[in-house]
Amino acid sequence: MATLRFRALNLVDQRKPVPVASSERRSEIFGRNVFGLEAMRATMSGDYFKKLQSAIKQGTPVERSVADAVAGAMKTWAMSKGATHYTHWFQPLTGATAEKHDSFFDLNSDGRPIENFKGSALVQQEPDASSFPSGGIRNTFEARGYTAWDPTSPAFIIETAGAKTLCIPTIFVAYTGEALDYKAPLLKSLVALERAALPICQYFDKDVQRVTTTLGIEQEYFLVDKALYSARPDLVMTGRTLFGHAPAKGQQLEDHYFGSIPPRVHAFMLEFEEEATKLGIPLRTRHNEVAPHQFECAPTFEDANLAIDHNQLLMDIMDRVADKHDFKVLLHEKPFAGVNGSGKHNNWALSTDTGVNLLSPGRKPKENLQFLAFFINTMKAVHQHADLLRASIASASNDHRLGANEAPPAIMSVFVGSQLSQVLDELERNAKLPLDKGDNLYLKLGIDKIPPILLDNTDRNRTSPFAFTGNKFEFRAVGSSANSSSSMTVLNAIVADQLETFRKEVDALIEGGRKKEMAIIDVLRQYVIDSKAIRFEGNGYSDEWKVEAAGRGLSNVPTTPPALDAFVTEQSSQLFSRLGIYSHVELHARHEILLEDYIKRVQIESRVMGDLAINHIIPTAVAYQNKLVQNVKGLRELGLDDEFTQVTVDSIKEISRRVATIKTTVAEMVDCRKVANKKDDTRERALMYSEKVRPLFDVIRRQVDKLELLVADEDWPLVKYRELLFLH
């Protein structure tokens, strides 16, 4: 292993930036490999093009004749780009994307070769569903599942090793109809949110006919050299370093954040951004993040469904391009202990077909009342369903990041800024003031005091998991490796449910004779009071906040297994069922899948840790200890007394103690796994892995990291943090 380490270090020393030549403007190549509106117009008849656009906008099924026309146009376009195969591109509950390639090549009835792609192949395919997570929905021997075309997300072409494939975004469902993916529930949640938001918009503007959810996903990631990555079995197998002593220099000088981008990294960024641009991903920002060799990219906001498809695609593009540049992208939430983890900040908002951002204050008091209606209802939804929102971001990897002094805590809170806090406080105080004839209710209630642009009127709070940032909410607690569909489906659902409740309460007051504006204000005022506990402007990293949050009645669930319980409460089951997003069966299946995923990931980490500790670390430590023993013997043979040998003897003893602790703790960890694996109940098994197995990781790691400081550098088998984080 030590030989492998030094061979890897030698390779890194010889690396040069990979030349990336591009003379075209981004605006000229944007969407080049996407079957978007322009490609459709160029390859379809006007009549079929209009019918397809109408079906997409109205959410109605695509007619068979239209599907055949689209398939023919898609095939013509894809083949003109050099594509030879097509695939239904879907997002199963593994967390990765999936695809099964079929060739356009076929034989006709006469046995002659042709290129063929029909509407039936476009709209639906039947991949094997038995090998994907189903949470008990499907038996192993029941293989049938269906992928079905999502016409709201355009098809695109991916090139891998010179071969081009037409990728068709689809949902993935069981033979019996239950969703087996992330996309299907997301689409249902978007429909539910629009259905709930539209009547609220029409309180203020009858011309509004559509409400769409927009999303901008910031992506954080680490880059390490491919050779160094390959020399770390823990990185290869788990995505994070299970061992590694902190380097003398980490991020404490704060000199990496927004610093100059290293040449090799810059070349990588140029190429992956260009590839992303060709696929219609509107990347605009790149920069160094806080931790050494951590970076971030961010796109312009898009329709939420498309934004999530693009983010899933982006992670794949980054990985493939990184390989060409001899890098490995690390998307694990906490690949290195003691330095910043990585997140995926989801910037969420709502907009109307009349061009209004519903989370942006307007220039008129009435517009501000509309803004407050959506703003306060979102805040109320987070307060009402904080545990469910926490569950939506729960994973074995994100547990390392949440609350780790550089990421939002596991406690859900909402940051709104000092200015909006004052507006909400004034609304709470003044809403019961008597209104005389001729009074300006907006002025008297403080509603007209909201500036039209809040974007820069308040400082941001990076310690808040759910922060209002001027014209959108930023859900900062989503993990960097996560599919954002999970958290966005929950957020859409809880806001939709809250808006429906709001409408019913306002309509009841109006029917009772209350003026519409005052009915809205009455209900909003009560929501401000009810949800006050969720608002927090201070330091979310502090221990004081944990104490204060407990006093406010806010939950703090730091680990995944108990956090996931929120998915299967009666309240959650009724909410998702009422909105038509998850059935009872689907919800419990997902709970089971997420628990199983947690167990498997911790189990893999435990096995890798045991293997490295017993088969690599201990032999290295013992071999070095033997060198020290020989050194002591030699000194004593020269007649030198304990005054000259004591330091070395102390090192020998310390190595023995630490090796003994590692061996006994690894054995204990293995025994705990065996006990846990005998539990039939998945939740009990997950809890045992969380409460019994995982805490032993820290004990083993502490001893190994101390040995790293004791053993000679030339003997140490694992690539060190200083090498992973600082060698470019």
Describe the structure in your own words.
- Belongs to the glutamine synthetase family.
- This protein has 25 helices and 17 strands.
- 47% of the residues are buried.
List the helices and strands and how they pair.
Layout: H1 2-14, H2 26-29, H3 37-43, H4 46-58, H5 64-80, E1 83-89, E2 101-103, E3 105-107, E4 113-115, H6 119-123, E5 124-125, E6 145-149, E7 156-160, E8 163-174, H7 183-204, E9 211-225, H8 226-230, H9 233-238, H10 263-278, E10 283-288, E11 294-299, E12 302-303, H11 304-324, E13 327-330, E14 344-352, H12 365-384, H13 386-391, H14 398-401, E15 414-415, H15 418-430, H16 441-445, E16 466-468, E17 473-475, H17 485-511, H18 516-530, H19 543-552, H20 560-563, H21 570-579, H22 584-637, H23 642-677, H24 682-710, H25 721-726
Parallel strand pairs: 1-8, 15-16
Antiparallel strand pairs: 1-2, 3-4, 5-6, 6-8, 7-8, 9-11, 9-12, 9-13, 9-14, 10-11, 14-17, 16-17
Helix pairs in contact: 4-5, 7-12, 7-17, 10-11, 12-17, 12-18, 15-18, 17-18, 22-23, 22-24, 23-24
Family: Belongs to the glutamine synthetase family.
GO molecular function: glutamine synthetase activity
Domain GS beta-grasp: 84-177
Low-confidence stretches: 455-459
Count of DSSP E strands?
A: 17
Largest beta-sheet characterization: 9 strands, mixed
Radius of gyration: 29 Å
The span between the termini is 21 Å
What is the SS-derived class?
alpha+beta
Task: Average the pLDDT over all residues and give the rounded result.
Answer: 90
- Report helical residue fraction: 40-55%
Q: Which geometry do the CA atoms define? A: globular
Percent in strands:
5-15%
Enumerate how many helices there are, as a single number: 25
GO molecular function, one term: glutamine synthetase activity
Protein name: Glutamine synthetase
Domain GS beta-grasp: 84-177
InterPro entries: Gln-synt_C, Gln_synt_N, Gln_synth/guanido_kin_cat_dom, Gln_synth_cat_dom, GS_Type-3, GSIII_N
